[in-house]
Amino acid sequence: MTGQSLTMQILHREGLARIGRFKTDHGYVDTPNIMPVINPNLRTIPIDTMKKFGTQAIITNSYIIRRNQDLKDEALKNGLHSLIGFDGTIMTDSGTFQSYVYGGVEYENRDTVEFQIDIKSDISTILDIFSTPSDSHEKARLAVDETHKRFEEIKDIAKSHNISGPIQGSIYRDLRRRSAKLMSDTDASYLPIGGVVPLLEQYKYSNLVDIILESKLASDFSKPVHLFGGGHPMFMGMAVLLGVDMFDSASYVKYARDDRLLYTEGTRYLADVTELPYWSPLNERFTIKEIKSLEEKERYSILAEHNLFAIFQELSEIRERIRENTLWQYIESKSRSHPSLYSAFKRILTHSKRIEPYFELYRKSPLFHFGTETNRSPYGIRLKKLEPEKGTYSTLSSREWKPARLSQDFVRNVYEKSEENFCINWYGLKIPVEMEEIYPVEQVISGYEKETKGTLFRRDNGYEKVRNFNLEKLRRVADFQFGKGNGKSIFPDDCKITVSKATGRIRTISRNDSILATMRAHDGFIGLTFEGGLKLHEVSKGMNNRVMVTRESATYNSQGKSVFFKFVEQNDMGIIPLNDVLVVDPDDSLIAVGRAMVSGREMRMYKDGVAVTINHHIQETTS
Ligand code: GUN
Q: Active site: which residues (predicted)?
């Protein structure tokens, strides 16, 4: 065993959802992913079939192995991987769940962990205390603290082995936060959310939303988060949206033994099924009639195969959704497939304000606007913050503004001849007209055809031009990206704005022959040059807009090389993922301007990977 850590490397993200990978002694595990539960006494599906479906890791129970003399001897002699016949990552559970079901187990915490190490588990689990959803606050608190104590008991082992530290706390949000914080601060390299099986079985997804979110937000983001028992494809996408990376599940076998087929939106009894879904791996080998006539053992094994495939298919869709940044939309539409999912989705909306800081400045895909619920989503909440106070603005009619189409007549003959605040009516939200191009104001798809109400302004040529729309737009967008009031300092009155001949839109902004910034066509945001960065650096105080790196890192970053997480010393906690940031050395000298890959809150949690990609750097301008 090497000195261990399962530190997450992030490859793609959407808010709290992430595609990443971690490594054990038996290879990489790409996340989000599932560990099928393997009972060493009962083999339902051949390992090769599991691998073919995409299994990179499995979970088995060390308690079951230890209690069976033959399994125990074999595991101690040749190791767990030989016993199971699997060369990928194997996680072991401790017997906690059995303790919960049967009211106790005969082993102690420390020797339970030692046994898992002896049989060469890649990720071992302490004997945590399962807190049930019906526990009192007092009882659940004791479970949280005892679980933490049990981790402390084996902390010497955790220095050199991967130990998972379950987060408990029943349905109590404060206890989940406490548990997540306590476990994150230990050497636990893996954080499963425990005690949730009863809630999953009862479809109590709203409770799960609260539990997962509290656990996730208080946890160390560099550690993989696992949902114990959460492998039903119906809920996996929502769990991933809330930051879960890994699942385990015996459901593929359990449902098979109950003669049920798993679908991404629920289950069906075999007896009720007339057609196999087109994607089922069973199609090549059986007709539904043949499956129904198989004898029990074979039938269970065949159904388990179908069920496991359904889980992997859903995971593949979830990962694809994260890559294209449409997971939120996917969950929103999927939530209509079951009332419990819909109420859970509405519960997520009540947390939008807390998760908004983790959402990227812009996304690859346009926002699908479904209705008032979209206004309560993280991007809706972000835009709502832009709403001016009532009574301080006038609203345009939809004849003057539709997404991506602001009337130039309005700009030249009304806006520029007035000092008034004007807003556009964005599906009920009042957004300052200067923000017309930013994501998702312009990058939106909706099915509404109704004209939005507002005032249609008549041209009035009697007045003088008193302001420049493009300059006001730049300053507003800069205020949003870099802090209120900074727009005016970065873009003084004498800056020069060039616009695209084809579209009339702002392209570059310069002053004294040097370019300060560009405005991106695809998301309507500002990209700073090094000169622009110098201006922002001059006016923004403290840690604002900054990522401060070690002196050693600064040398590399000044040549245009990316900032790695491990070299970040301090940073602005309010950084929005994918926004431009100032990279400074420990003396606060500007080294480079780049794009933050994660939010300010996450930046000092990760250990592996790129924190900031550099767009412009100091040596470029001096050479
Ligand atoms: N399996 C399902 N739930 C749990 C849990 O809370 N703890 C452990 N160790 N295993 C589980």
A: 93
pLDDT, average across residues 429-440: 95
> Domain 468-531: what homologous superfamily?
ArcTGT, C2 domain (3.10.450.90)
Q: Which atom of ligand 1 is closest in space to residue 127's alpha carbon?
A: 9
Task: Give the binding-site residues of ligand 1, using a 6 Å CB cut-off.
Answer: 93-94, 96-97, 125, 128, 130, 166, 194-195, 197, 228-229
Residue ranges of the domains in the chain?
12-350, 355-465, 468-531, 541-623
- Per-residue pLDDT of 117-170, as tens digits, reads 999 999 999 999 999 999 999 999 999 999 999 999 999 999 999 999 999 999
Say how many Å lie between the CA of residue 229 and the centre of ligand 1: 8
Q: Across the chain, how many H-helices and E-strands are there? A: 26, 30
The residues that are catalytic are 93
- Tell me the average pLDDT of the chain: 94
User: Has 128 been labeled as part of a binding site?
Assistant: yes
Least trusted range by pLDDT, from 6-15, 390-399, 482-491, 613-622: 613-622
Ligand 1 center–CA 30 separation, angstroms: 22
Please count the other Cβ atoms lying within 10 Å of the Cβ belonging to residue 390.
Answer: 7
Q: Which residues, in sequence order, are bridge partners of residue 446?
A: 369
- The pLDDT tens digits for 580-611 are 999 999 999 999 999 999 999 999 999 989 99
Side-chain-side CA neighbours of 11 within 13 Å: the count stands at 14
Name the closest-CA residue to atom 6, ligand 1.
194
CATH fold, domain 12-350, is TIM Barrel (3.20.20)
Domain 355-465 CATH assignment equals 3.90.1020.10 = yes
Contacts 24+ apart (CB under 8 A), 588-591: 588/546, 588/548, 590/530, 590/533, 590/534, 590/537, 590/618, 591/549, 591/554, 591/557, 591/558, 591/617, 591/618
Query: Does position 619 have pLDDT exceeding 50, yes or no?
Result: yes
CA distances from 459 to 16, 410, 422, 462 (A): 47, 7, 15, 9
Mutate to test the pocket of ligand 1, among 64, 116, 125, 130 (most ligand atoms within 8 A of CB): 130
pLDDT the model gives residue 407 = 85
Question: 545 CA to middle of ligand 1, Å?
Answer: 42
To test the ligand 1 pocket, which listed residue (59, 64, 101, 128) has its Cβ within 8 A of the most ligand atoms?
Answer: 128
Q: For ligand 1, what atom is nearest to the CA of residue 164?
A: 9
Compute, in angstroms, the gap from residue 168 CA to the centroid of ligand 1. 9
Summarize pLDDT for 161-202 with one digit per residue, the tens.
999 999 999 999 999 999 999 999 999 999 999 999 999 999
For domain 541-623, the CATH architecture is: Roll (2.30)
